[in-house]
C-alpha cells in the first residue's frame, strides 16, 4: 500500500555544528571533552571536517533528491569573545545558507545546538543573570546569515538540556538511569525564557518562520503508571509545547518511547535497545509523539526536525524509517499539520558523550581521511522524497 504526504512537504536530513565541523576549540563541550575524568568517551577533534567540506555534504543531500537541510551555527565561532563578532565565521554560515539555495535545498538553521562559548560557560552559563541579554545579542549578530533560511530554530531540545543536570547528579550518586528523568524545573524555565528573548529579536527583524525544537517521546502505560506518566509528559513535553504557542512552528525530534509502571520508568528490554543510550527501538513513537503535540498545539505547524536510529545495520535503518514514516502519515491523515521530515543524521558523526560509536548517518565517514561513503539508506530516502511518499 502506497503512502503519500502533503504537497510541498519537505524531505531532508540534518547535522549540528559541533558534531560535524571539527575544531570547535572555543566552546564548553570542547573543554569538557578534554577535562580530567571527562564523561565523554572521546573528544570531538576534527569530527567530520564539515567546516571545510560543507559543500560536499550539501551535494550529497541535493544529489539524493532531498529538498531541505538542517544545520546549526556555532556561537563560539561567531562571538569568540564576548561582544566580539567574527565576520569570517558569520560569512561562512551565510555561504552555507546560499549553498543550500543554490542546490534547491530549503535551509533550516538552528542558533543554539547545545553548545555555548567558553566565556559564557565560565560566567553563569544558561541560567546566569546575563544569559538573556547574551542570547539576544547573539541572535542579532546571526541575523545576516539567517535572512534566506526557510526556518530558524532558536534552541535545540531545551527540554533535554534541562534534563542533563539531573542525569549528571544521578550519575554522580551512582543511581541507575533507566530513561529520561524529569527536567530540572529551574533550568527549564530559564531556557524557555531564553527562547523568548531570541524570538523577540527574530520577530523584530522580520526573520523567516521561527520556533524551537523539542525532544518528543511516546509515553506508554504498562499498567498502574498513568499518574507518573502524565507528570513526566507534562514536565518534558507539555510545558515546552505550551511555551511555544504563538511561535511560527515547533520542531519535534523523536526517536523512542518511555514506558511507565506503578514504580515509574521501566527500562526497555535488552533486545530492543539501539546503539545510543539504550533507547528502545520504537519507530511508531514518531506518529504517537506528533499526535500528542498536535493535540496540545492544534494551530501550530509542526516539523519533524530529527528522527532516526543508531544502528550498524543500514537495512534496519531503512526498515525503521519506513515504519516511522507510516506512523507519521497516519498522524497527518488524522489532522496533524506537519510540514516536513528531517532525518538524523546526514553523517556518522560525534554523538556527544558516546563519541563516534553510535552510527545514525545516511553517509559513512572515514575517521582518517574524512571520505564520505553514502549508504543505501540515503538513496532510499531520496526516492521517498521524489515520490513524496512510500511505495
Structural commentary:
The chain has 391 residues and is α/β, with parallel strands linked by helices. The protein has one domain: TIM Barrel. It has helices at residues 17-20, 28-33, 50-63, 75-78, 87-102, 118-121, 131-146, 158-173, 185-204, 226-243, 285-296, 314-333, 376-387, and strands at 3-4, 10-14, 68-72, 106-112, 151-156, 210-221, 249-261, 264-266, 302-306, 338-344, 363-365, 372-374, 389-390.
Secondary structure blueprint with pairings:
Blueprint: E1 3-4, E2 10-14, H1 17-20, H2 28-33, H3 50-63, E3 68-72, H4 75-78, H5 87-102, E4 106-112, H6 118-121, H7 131-146, E5 151-156, H8 158-173, H9 185-204, E6 210-221, H10 226-243, E7 249-261, E8 264-266, H11 285-296, E9 302-306, H12 314-333, E10 338-344, E11 363-365, E12 372-374, H13 376-387, E13 389-390
Parallel strand pairs: 2-3, 2-10, 3-4, 4-5, 5-6, 6-7, 7-9, 9-10
Antiparallel strand pairs: 1-13, 7-8, 11-12
Helix pairs in contact: 5-7, 7-9, 8-9, 8-10, 11-12, 12-13
The CA-CA distance between the termini, in Å, is: 7 Å
Rg to the nearest angstrom? 20 Å
Just give the CATH class.
Answer: Alpha Beta
Number of helices: 13
Q: Which sequence of strands runs across the widest sheet?
A: 2-3-4-5-6-7-9-10
As for the CATH topology, it is TIM Barrel
What's the overall average pLDDT, rounded? 97
Approximately how much helix is present in the residues?
A: 40-55%
Amino acid at each position: 500500500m502506497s503512502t503519500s504526504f502533503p504537497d510541498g512537504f519537505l524531505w531532508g536530513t540534518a547535522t549540528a555544528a559541533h558534531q560535524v565541523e571539527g575544531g570547535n576549540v572555543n566552546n564548553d563541550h570542547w573543554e569538557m571533552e578534554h577535562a580530567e575524568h571527562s564523561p565523554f568517551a572521546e573528544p570531538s577533534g576534527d569530527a567530520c571536517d564539515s567546516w571545510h567540506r560543507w559543500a560536499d555534504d550539501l551535494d550529497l543531500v541535493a544529489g539524493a533528491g532531498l529538498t531541505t537541510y538542517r544545520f546549526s551555527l556555532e556561537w563560539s565561532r561567531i562571538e569568540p569573545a564576548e561582544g566580539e563578532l567574527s565576520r569570517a565565521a558569520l560569512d561562512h554560515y551565510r555561504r552555507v545558507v546560499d549553498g543550500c539555495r543554490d542546490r534547491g535545498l530549503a535551509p533550516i538553521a538552528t542558533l543554539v545546538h547545545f553548545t555555548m562559548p567558553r566565556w559564557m560557560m565560565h560566567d553563569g552559563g544558561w541560567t546566569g543573570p546575563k544569559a538573556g541579554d547574551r542570547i539576544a545579542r547573539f541572535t542579532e549578530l546571526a541575523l545576516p546569515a539567517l535572512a534566506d533560511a526557510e526556518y530558524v530554530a532558536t534552541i535545540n531540545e531545551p527540554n533535554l538540556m534541562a534534563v542533563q543536570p539531573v542525569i549528571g547528579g544521578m550519575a554522580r550518586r551512582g543511581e541507575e538511569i533507566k530513561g529520561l528523568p524529569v527536567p530540572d524545573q529551574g533550568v527549564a524555565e530559564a531556557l524557555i525564557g531564553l527562547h523568548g528573548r531570541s524570538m523577540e529579536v527574530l520577530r523584530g527583524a522580520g526573520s523567516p518562520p521561527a520556533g524551537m525544537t523539542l525532544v518528543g517521546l511516546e509515553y506508554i502505560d504498562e499498567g498502574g503508571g498513568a499518574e507518573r506518566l502524565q507528570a513526566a509528559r507534562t514536565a518534558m513535553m507539555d510545558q515546552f509545547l505550551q511555551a511555544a504557542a504563538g511561535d511560527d512552528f515547533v520542531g519535534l525530534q523523536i526517536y523512542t518511547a518511555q514506558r511507565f509502571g506503578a514504580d515509574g520508568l521501566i527500562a526497555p528490554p535488552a533486545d530492543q535497545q539501539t546503539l545510543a543510550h539504550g533507547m528502545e527501538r520504537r519507530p511508531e513513537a514518531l506518529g504517537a509523539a506528533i499526535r500528542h503535540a498536535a493535540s496540545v498545539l492544534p494551530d501550530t505547524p509542526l516539523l519533524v526536525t530529527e528522527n532516526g536510529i543508531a544502528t550498524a545495520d543500514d537495512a534496519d535503518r531503512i526498515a525503521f524509517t519506513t515504519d516511522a514514516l507510516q506512523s507519521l502519515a497516519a498522524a497527518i491523515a488524522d489532522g496533524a499539520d506537519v510540514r516536513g521530515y528531517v532525518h538524523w543524521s546526514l553523517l556518522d558523526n560525534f554523538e556527544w558523550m558516546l563519541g563516534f560509536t553510535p552510527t545514525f548517518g545516511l553517509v559513512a565517514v572515514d575517521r582518517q581521511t574524512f571520505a564520505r561513503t553514502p549508504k543505501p539508506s540515503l538513496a532510499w530516502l531520496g526516492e521517498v522524497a521524489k515520490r513524496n511518499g512510500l511505495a
